[in-house]
Design goal:
The complex is a heterodimer of chains A (459) and B (382). By secondary structure, chain A is α/β, with parallel strands linked by helices. Chain A folds into 2 domains: 56 residues; 395 residues, Thiolase/Chalcone synthase (Peroxisomal Thiolase, Chain A, domain 1). In chain A, strands 1, 2, 5, 6, 7, 9, 10, 11, 12, 13, 14 and 15 form a 12-stranded mixed β-sheet that branches. Chain A is globular. The two termini of chain A are 41 Å apart. Chain B has a single domain, classed as Peroxisomal Thiolase, Chain A, domain 1, CATH 3.40.47. Chain B is built from 12 helices and 15 strands. In chain B, the strands form 3 sheets. In chain B, strands 1, 2, 5, 6, 7, 8, 9, 10, 11, 14 and 15 form an 11-stranded mixed β-sheet that branches. In chain B, strand 1 and strand 2 form a beta hairpin. In chain B, helix 3 crosses helix 6. The model of chain B has no long low-confidence stretch (mean pLDDT 93). The chains are: A alpha/beta (459), B alpha/beta (382). Strand 6 of chain A pairs antiparallel with strand 6 of chain B, so a sheet runs across the interface.
Chain lengths: 459, 382
């Protein structure tokens, strides 16, 4: 056994040195053959081959070939991108329910969303608003990926959500409380895993499905998990994303926690006094790089690192020192094998609550050190609100859009710098910069922390 | 056959017993936990039965003042995770928190608190709504609470799923352990009984009796008439095989990563619950176990639902726990599957008494209502 391991170690060492010197692939292959052929024992030869196979498997690259987006800024990427460039504020007074008795009255609702898509296998009348939004965004992503026809059946589906179909659940419960019967179809799409199951049914997918519900970090968790699944060779194509709708239930909940602002959402500003809720969906198609290139797909960006950690501190409050949040970010950078100084933009979680932003600033300082004063940081929650389970996925898609366009998404309403958050906040819209690598952070209830690193294809 | 990860601790909070010795005794004795529902009024409903847990029993095994106001589901999860860690012989104060993970599978989540919060909101208005109910009504509250209680900082995840969510969580936990290079991960499911869920299932005629028959779960029977809801939690401690062997831990079973050993399966713990989907599950089991299987005549088919009730996410994790204990002890508990089976199960010969069998592999199957289904393969380690 020891003989075998020394061989493997020797091989890794040599391979490392070879790749360091950027040797051509053929030299690598010859080297592998020589190591294998020189090994006398057959079973050890087999083991080395297996190790090499795993080594290559674990080094698969994961690329994004399609993205879909719906937020309060608009339906589809085009409207959203123009909104980001202009720095349009999509937060308005809430229209879908009565907000008279609440402390905060505003939110980022999706307006003018009419679901007209023809469905192959589902009945639209039985679907929740979340499923309709998800289907629309997933269509956009799959179309961009060029997989409208010929989406592999074994495509995995990994989604993040907090509420699931709470929108219909709420209506059903309301009628039950007043002794009415309530439409039974409202509960068919209520539970959090049903939307994913419906999407899989519509697309005819039979791959592995997971619905991750880690509060506000769910979306990032879903994309990160999908990235790890592809990298380890278990799957080759994944539809990943996150979604949540605007419900009175959550609105009242965050109000009861005194977390909703009565005025403006001001992430990282000294006068910040709470978050604004929103709704939206972000979906992306992730593929193994070789496979995407093989079928001639347009590669939008690459996922190069993912990290996660848990606070184990308090169910709603973040750990004030930001130790676990910093651990998640530095894990992601370590996974990406890049130095912190190579990051050009940080898409912050920035909920605009006093606790979160101070904690996040501390976490960024911990990881980036002095560079934290210069790297541009912004939270798009100032434009579209906090999308809970959808936040991570939507922010990931917007980060990629910004990367492609070369524009920094603005952090609106930033007027007075807070000494607790000494960061380079993007306070004006339309700032042009070349973004090669960007980090997107997400932190949530229950101490869930996650960070993901994206890289431009032209690096 | 090889496996990378093993089960070294089992913690169960179930209607038939708290802690795995009590659970196992009830399985051997065939003792059921299904009784008249006490926690809410079932008047006006055709169904009266449910498998509930006595709240005092939970306080006896887990009392931490920090979580006294947590939802029932969180308390079950905390108690089960505590029992599992104790059973594995690990010490949460001694482990590296960054190398420990937690994955909880849930189906309905903290419905009691969700309903409570929403009812107050609708009846009394926004100002009366209590933040305590809200913060504990999120789906990841059980995982969040357990990560705080047991100092778990590596990863704390919640998998929302149908009935298979418990074994999905185990599957997911193994992937997370590989991705994050964790030493230990606690995975399983948790569920609580609630009036609104009960009412919803009754409306879909999924609750027993949906005809004039007697109330109760009859898996795979031709005269089955629906499910009986249950509650509880089941958490398993997963570790790397080498690490577990090195520290001399009791290894219940290994989790098999490859899935082509159908010929070696001797014990199948099914998830059938007396509803329409039993036919689907029977079809899958027949294809897997009775088709070209040389051992088809020897396969024992078990089911725990007539004893524990349908505990959804917790139920599928309990299936895994019962299979792991059966592999470890070399005893197959008496099957609760009765006579008069549907034709897809014609190959199944249920054992009426506990049998001593050294089974190599066990299969856990679970099918959800929305078309999801999961299989988990466990293997005995020598």
């Amino acid at each position: 056994m020891s003989f075998c391991w020394s061989h493997i170690r020797r091989y890794y060492m040599a391979l490392f040195l070879f790749s360091l010197g950027r040797m051509v692939f053929s030299v690598n292959v010859i080297f592998i053959f020589r190591v294998v052929l020189q090994t006398p024992d057959r079973s050890i030869r087999g083991q080395i081959c297996r190790q090499i196979y795993w080594f290559y498997k674990m080094n698969r690259r994961v690329v994004i070939t399609g993205t879909g987006l719906i937020t309060a800024l608009g339906i589809g990427k085009k409207q959203n991108l123009s909104g980001i460039i202009e720095g349009r504020n999509a937060i308005k007074e809430i229209a879908s329910f009565d907000v008279k008795s609440y402390r905060g009255k505003t939110g980022g609702e999706i307006k003018e969303f009419n679901f007209s898509k023809k469905l192959k296998r589902l009945r639209p009348s039985r679907l929740d608003r979340a499923t309709k939004l998800l289907l629309t965004a997933a269509d956009e992503a799959v179309l961009e990926a060029g997989l409208k026809e010929g989406l592999p059946q074994d495509t995995s589906l990994i989604l993040g959500t907090t509420l699931g179909g709470m929108f219909s659940g709420e209506i059903y419960h309301h009628s039950r409380i007043y002794g009415k019967k309530g439409r039974p179809s409202l509960i068919l799409d209520y539970l959090a895993h049903c939307q994913g199951a419906h999407l899989a049914e519509e697309y005819g997918l039979n791959g592995r499905q997971f619905t991750i519900s880690n509060a506000c970090a769910s979306g990032t968790n879903a994309i990160g998990f999908a990235y790890n699944e592809i990298r380890s060779g278990r799957v080759h194509t994944v539809i990943a994303g996150g979604y949540d709708t605007m419900c009175e239930f959550t609105f009242a909940g965050f109000n009861s926690l005194q977390a909703v602002t009565p005025s403006l959402c001001r992430p990282f500003d000294k006068g910040r006094d709470g978050l604004v809720l929103g709704e939206g969906v972000g979906v992306m198609v992730l593929e193994e790089m070789g496979r995407a290139e093989g079928r001639g797909a347009d590669i939008i960006a690459e996922v190069i690192g993912y990290g996660e950690a848990s606070d184990a501190f308090h169910i709603t409050r973040p750990e004030p020192g930001g130790v676990s949040a910093a651990a998640a970010i530095s894990d992601a950078l370590e996974d990406a094998q890049i130095d912190a100084s190579l990051i050009d933009y940080i898409n912050a979680h920035g909920t605009a609550t006093s606790y979160n932003d101070a904690m996040e600033a501390r976490a960024i300082q911990r990881v980036f050190g002095n560079a934290s004063k210069t790297i541009p940081v912004s939270s798009i929650k100032s434009m579209i609100g906090h999308l809970l389970g959808g936040a991570g996925a939507v922010e990931a898609v917007i980060t990629i859009l910004a990367m492609k366009e070369g524009v920094l998404p603005p952090n609106l309403n930033y007027k007075t710098p807070d000494p607790e958050c000494p960061l380079n906040i993007v306070d004006k819209p339309g700032q042009r910069i070349s973004i090669k690598r960007a980090v997107s952070n997400s932190f949530g209830f229950g101490g869930a922390n996650a960070a993901i690193v994206f890289q431009d294809v032209n690096v | 056959m090889s496996c990378e990860y093993v089960i070294t601790g089992i913690g169960i909070v179930s209607p038939i017993g708290i802690g795995n010795p009590a659970f196992w005794d009830a399985l051997l004795a065939g003792r059921t936990g299904i009784k008249e529902i006490k926690s809410f009024n079932t008047e006006g409903q055709r169904s009266r039965l449910g498998a509930e847990i006595n709240p005092d029993d939970i306080d006896a095994v887990f009392s931490d003042k920090r979580f006294r106001r947590a939802a029932k589901i969180s308390k079950y999860c905390l108690a089960a995770a505590g029992l599992a860690i104790k059973d594995s012989g690990l010490d949460p104060s001694g482990w590296d928190p960054a190398k420990a993970g937690l994955v909880v599978g849930v189906t309905h989540g903290a419905m009691n608190y969700t309903r409570e919060f929403h009812t107050v909101l609708i009846r009394e208005g926004a100002l009366s709504a209590s933040p305590m109910f809200f913060s504990d009504s999120v789906l990841n509250a059980p995982a969040g609470n357990a990560s705080i209680a047991f100092n778990i900082k590596g990863a704390a995840h919640t998998i929302a799923g149908g009935i298979p969510a418990g074994i999905d969580a185990i599957d997911y936990a193994i992937r997370v352990m590989r991705n994050n290079n964790l030493d230990v991960c606690i995975a399983g499911g948790a569920e609580e009984i609630d009036a609104l869920v009960f009412d919803s299932y009754a409306r879909f005629r999924l609750l027993s009796p949906n005809n004039r028959g007697k109330e109760g779960i009859k898996p795979f029977a031709s005269d089955r008439n629906g499910l009986v809801t249950g509650e509880g939690a089941c958490m398993l401690v997963l570790e790397k095989k080498e690490a577990a062997v090195k520290r001399g831990a009791v290894v219940y079973a290994g989790i098999s990563d490859a899935r082509d050993f159908d010929n070696k399966i001797i014990y199948a713990v099914t998830g059938a619950n007396g509803t329409g989907k039993d036919v689907v599950e029977a079809g899958i089991l027949k294809a897997l176990l009775a088709g070209n299987n040389k051992n088809a005549a020897k396969v024992f088919v078990g089911n725990i639902k007539p004893l524990t009730g349908e505990c959804f996410a917790a139920g599928s994790a309990m299936q895994a726990a019962s299979a792991a204990m059966a592999l470890h002890k070399g005893i197959i508990p008496p099957s609760t599957i009765g006579k008069g089976l549907i034709k897809e199960m014609d190959w199944c010969r249920p054992n009426t008494k506990a049998e001593e069998v050294k089974a190599d592999m066990a299969l856990i199957s679970s099918i959800g209502f929305e078309g999801s289904g999961s299989l988990l393969y466990l293997m005995r380690l020598y």
